[in-house]
Amino acid sequence: MIDKAEIERLVREATEGSGIFIVGIRITTSDRITVLADSNEGITIEECAAIHRHIEKNLDREREDYELQVSSPGLDMPFVVPEQYHKNEGKKVEMVTTEGERFTGLLKNVTPGGFELVTETKVRGKASELKEVSFNFDQVKSTRVFFTLK
Q: Do 94 and 140 fall into the same domain?
């Protein structure tokens, strides 16, 4: 089986100094390798192809056969790494806590330990109020960009 640490090392080599970060690496028992990468500006097809080529060049197909896919995470994929929170700071997100509470709001003040959401809360008999709610990363089950089609 292909070593995940080796794939991570190769991706880091290919992306060094580029601002691209690893979102995830998955390797199945049948050696299907999936690499998800992104950057604050977004990742291009050309950048994904360059990572793909670097991995292919450094793995021996004679030793192990594998399938390789390199892409960006989809819009509907929950955040996995803190870099995704930084990338989406200032955007509207939907978050679910580990206790099942749902919040939608503007993501701000991302730190190594957590973040704040500016949410709109409805007060009975009054107009809605904006409220800042702080969360630690260990309180979060999932967070994803909230988008609507207009």
A: yes
Same domain, 52 and 94: no
Q: CA geometry: angle at 102 spanning 100 and 104, to 5°?
A: 160
> What is the Cα–Cα distance from 21 to 10, expressed in whole angstroms?
13
49 and 105 belong to one structural domain: no
Are 54 and 10 a contacting pair, CB within 8 Å?
yes
The arithmetic mean of pLDDT across residues 81-106, rounded, is 95
pLDDT for res 62: 85
Domain total in the chain: 2
Residue 80 has pLDDT above 90, yes or no: yes
Is residue 95 included in any domain, yes or no? yes
What's phi and psi for 99, nearest 5 deg? Answer: -95, 0
The residue count of the chain comes to 150
Distances (CA, A) of 15 to 114, 143, 146: 26, 25, 28
Provide the whole-model pTM.
0.86
Positive or negative, the CA dihedral 38, 41, 42, 43 is negative
